[in-house]
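Late entry, 5-O-phosphono-beta-D-ribofuranosylamine complex.
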Amino acid sequence: MTPRDVVVLVSGYGTNLQALIRASHAHLIKSRIKCVISNNPDAFALFRAQKAGITTAVVPSKNIPRAQFQSQLMDAVEAQNPDLIVLAGFMVILSAGFVSHFKNRIINIHPSLLPAFPGLNAQNQAIEYGAKITGCTVHFVDEGCDTGPIILQKSIAVEDGDTTETLTKRLLSVEHQALVEAVRLIEEDKVILQGRKTLLRVSA
Ligand code: GRF
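Prediction complete; structure with ligand written out below:
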């Protein structure tokens, strides 16, 4: 078992971050959330981190050239020397340079069963498409948008009459479980990358 120093990148409300904080307090994961970094100074996630006594930093992405932002973000993350970087509602596409610098150390949670419905508004995409089943995916981040090797997925039914709000709410509760499970599998060295696939050593 190798406990990891984790940096969590956030942009918004931070319920996935909260799930990690809760799991850490309950000793369901051994990893330490060393720092939470947001591109959005108003993210509620920052408040959640501060309340839990976690160091926070803001690297604003607004009104700044993309390359400059990505380089500042890289410096802020690198300063923490993380073993693992978790994108938990981080609404920025990372540059190829950033991804290759932290190769195989970045994971993301996405609210659909990838490769279906990548990108923004995945819940609404699923409803509009008429999907009967959707879910969430935790995956390693590569240079593409939501294209990296899948670590795990959890599915739920799309109910008749679901709105973006009702589906988002049900999805979030499985996202929280999936993200905690993925971090636990990684810290237990149970996720083996083989090309674009992962093998999970789920037995003891
Ligand atoms: C989640 O649906 C996550 O899958 C997506 O952004 C949302 C963030 O929610 N990438 P929260 O900020 O963790 O509450």
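Strands lie at 5-10, 32-38, 55-58, 84-87, 106-110, 133-140, 150-157, 191-194, 197-200. Will revisit in the morning.
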